[in-house]
Amino acid sequence: MNQNRVYEYRRNFIMSLGGVAAVGVIGSGFVLQTASAAGEIAAKPADQPVTNAKRWGMLIDVTKLTDGGAAMVAACKQEHGWGDEMHSADAQKAHWSRVVKVTDKLTQNSFSLPVMCQHCEKPPCVDVCPTGASMKRADGIVQVNKHICIGCRYCMMACPYKARSFVHEPLQDQKPHSPRGMGTVESCNMCVHRIDEGRLPACVEAAPDAVIFGDLNDPNSAVSQAMKTVGGKQIRADLGLNTGVRYHGI
Amino acid sequence: MASQAIIFRETRESKGFYFLLVILGAFLALGALAFFHAEHHGHYVTGMTNQVVWGLPHVFAIGLIVAASGALNVGSIGTVFGKKIYQPMGRLSALLAISLLIGGLIVLVLDLGHPDRLIIAMTTYNFKSIFAWNIILYNGFLALSAVYIWTMMDRKAKPFYKLAGVAAFTWRLILTTGTGSIFGFLVARDFYNSAIMAPLFIVMSFAMGLAVFILVLHFAYSWTGRPLGDAVMNRLRYLLAVFIGGVLLLEGARHFTGLYIAQKAGVENFILFEGGIYTQLFWVGQIMLGSLLPLSLIFCRKLGSNRIALLFAAFFTVLGGFAQLYVILVGGQAYPLMLFPGADVSSDYFDGVVNAYVPSVWELMLGLGGVALALVMVTVGVKVLRFLPDSLSDAVVEPHN
Ligand code: SF4
Ligand code: SF4
Q1: What is the whole-number distance in angstroms between the Cα of residue A98 and the centre of ligand 1?
Q2: How far is CA B371 from the centre of its chain?
Q3: What is the pLDDT at residue B187?
Q4: Considering the entire predicted model, what is its pTM?
Q5: What residue of B is the nearest CA neighbor of A166?
């Protein structure tokens, strides 16, 4: 842990002891983020490096997603323009995010949730990438450097969540803020271009009542507070990857 | 090392030589065509998808790489373990090793999404990645094998012969450990995540490499009209049996433990019993044709010193090796990722279902191109340099036995 964070923790701890901490009261469910949550993400000036003072993450309340997350997936698709490849077969098309339906074999309990890159703290995709193209930013965002990705797909073999896609054909009309390229691997990048501008990821905006986004390192952030109260489960927690995307109600 | 009786000589120019080159050249051309086709259109022309991300090209590439390290064994047994009868074959063994490795690597590289960025892969390393280690291991293997050949061919380098042999042998063990670990470290996939992958790949390489060596040795001698006696071939024959047995043993251990571990039971069940093509490839391809058939061809009394039986045994061992790699690689990916243990999952993106994969003809062409490249290198190698002893007849070999 870096020094700053230790101080931050101490400060926060002392603050909460004194009862000064401005923490929203969180009841049985979430106090749902509004524009104020967005205000927690300060824009990062372009000339400043990314630091590990923050770790971005989100908590998705599956019980509040009436569509199972379809709107979130659609927003991601719209934002980054993936999945419309003309020649690729269905199994070859890129998917940065998808709705997965889960039914317990024994209890038949069933729910749906959006699955995208979980922005693992210890990402297997980054470990195996031979060139370092798969990388984790200091603020916890895992993404691919398209300029040095050689397209070996080893990261796709290593990702437990099938969160990565390989681009199988030449692409046209790409979004300027989300460059993609044939022969490279891509995946959810938490809308890094938006976060650096102090905006929320597209999928979070699309499901404002069900997702809280923010800094997991800050114990006072809305997302940390919500997780402290209601918990935040990981998919395949047994793998010990400490994911940045957490779920409630799974 | 060998006494004067063993004379190394280049193969002679002949119609057969050029005929062979033309045939192999045709396969090379097809491989190149496949590469340009996929490079131009993108990988959608292949059968590989975002569910089965490594396909037939990887089976060929890893098969060749695994066989490469095994091919070096024949030389190693002569050098490292001082078995005289193997020493005259050391040069061919190292040449074959280099050729197979380059053949395999070319397939791997040409199947990359960005083969043009090879220079990045060679210069930008993430040292945590087993793939990155492998790039270093492959280059080291090529260099050490070349030095090893040099110590066998140049009298002045003779003092380093043993040292080079030991170094190359040690390196190849590490190399195959690296190849096996490409899979062994993948926690995400139940079929791979296991320490046994490294030793399994080592024995596989012993078996496949030796089988390829036997085939190449036989045809090199019969097509150039050189004598090749039973003394040599029978040594190789029983060695092959030992290696096939080793693969069976480790595969058995792997699947038995897999069946007992709850987490792996699903994928084991899939591969061994319910996996359709993968189950067939396992039982029929790998076990029956690839292991039991060669073993019976080797041990059947009536077939004693029968050369044809040995050639078939070697051929089926190679075939079994490829079947095994196909089951490991593609079968392991066909089985769906486990997102929620104990639950059924589904999505519009193939969650919870067995992933389909049908290799395209382009992938086959690319893979065969790699095989052809390896064989061209051997054919030309024995033509221009003194790799092959003039004779490996019993009379020549026996005194050194
Ligand atoms: S979810 Fe997959 S792609 Fe995302 S960080 Fe984890 S291993 Fe990498
Ligand atoms: S495909 Fe690209 S990002 Fe993935 S491991 Fe290979 S080089 Fe790294």
Answers
A1: 14
A2: 10
A3: 86
A4: 0.92
A5: B50
B246: tokens are 């080793």
Cβ atoms of B286 and B324 within 8 Å: the answer is: yes
Whether A233 contacts A250, CB under 8 Å: yes
pLDDT of residue B124: 87
CA closest to B185 among chain A residues: A158
**Mean of the per-residue pLDDT values of chain B:** 94
User: Which of A82, A92, A110 to mutate against chain B (most B CBs within 10 Å)?
Assistant: A92
Alpha-carbon distance B113 to nearest alpha carbon in chain A (angstroms)? 4
Residue corresponding to tokens 């524009």: A35
Q: pLDDT by residue (tens digit) across A109-146?
A: 999 999 999 999 999 999 999 999 999 999 999 999 99
What is residue B214's predicted lDDT score, i.e. its pLDDT? Answer: 98
Q: If you measure from the C-alpha of residue A221 to the centroid of ligand 1, how many angstroms do you get, rounded to a whole number?
A: 24
H or E element, residue A213? strand A211-215
What is the average per-residue pLDDT within B198-212?
Answer: 97
Q: Comparing C-alpha atoms, which of B257, B218, B225, B279 is closest to residue B96?
A: B218
**Residue A131 near ligand 2, beta carbon < 6 Å:** yes
Beta partners for residue A212, in sequence order? A59
What ipTM goes with this model? 0.93
Alpha-carbon distances of B361 from B34, B51, B55, B358, B364, rounded to whole Å: 8, 19, 12, 10, 5
Report CB contact under 8 Å: A124, B188. yes
The C-alpha atoms of residue B57 and residue B110 are separated, in whole angstroms, by: 9
A199 touches chain B (CB under 8 A): no
Q: Is the Cβ atom of A119 under 6 angstroms away from ligand 1?
A: yes
